[in-house]
Design goal:
mainly alpha; globular; 9 helices; single chain
Length: 184
Amino acid sequence: MRKGDYITTISGRKFWPLDPHPEDVDIHDIAWALSRICRFGGHTNSHYSVATHCTAVSLLVPEEDALWGLLHDASEAYVGDMVRPLKDGMTAYKQAEDRVSLVIANAFGLPLEMPESVHLADKRIVQAEKFLFTNQTVCEDLSTMDEDIAAINKALETENGPVDVYLKYLSRFQELHQYSIATT
C-alpha cells in the first residue's frame, strides 16, 4: 500500500508525492507541468515558466552538470511550486519536495546531490529573472548579468506559448540525456 494519496499526471500516470518511486517519473509529465507553472507565483510582467527557467540554468553550467540544471526544479511538476517565503517555513512541503527530487535524480541516473554549479547558476538566473520579469530588482550595471540574460534569451528563443516551451524542454532533455548516457 502506497503512502498518502496520488495525483494523476497529464500522461494518465498515478504519482504519489508522499511515496514517490522512480518508475512513476515521466519526463513528458515533468516538461508539461513545468511549461505551465509560472515563476514567482505568477507575479511577472509576462508568463515566464519554470521550464524556461530550468532550460536557462542548464545553459549556464558545465555540460556534465547540465542535465541536473534542467531537472533541478523538476519536483515542482509533482508537488507544485510555492513562493519562497512559504517554502522556507513549510518543513513538510520541503521534505516531500526533497524526496521527489531524489527519486527524479535516481530515475534519470543523476548523482543524488545536486552539483554546486547548479546551485550557483540558479541563484544567478533568479537575479536576472527578477530584473527582467518583475519589479523586484533594480540593476545599475547590466554587464554583471550579461551571461545570465543571454542564457534566458536563448531559452526564450522562438517560444510561443506553453506547447513550445514543453517541446523545447523535451528537446533539451533528449540532448542532455544522450550526453549523460554517452559519458557514463
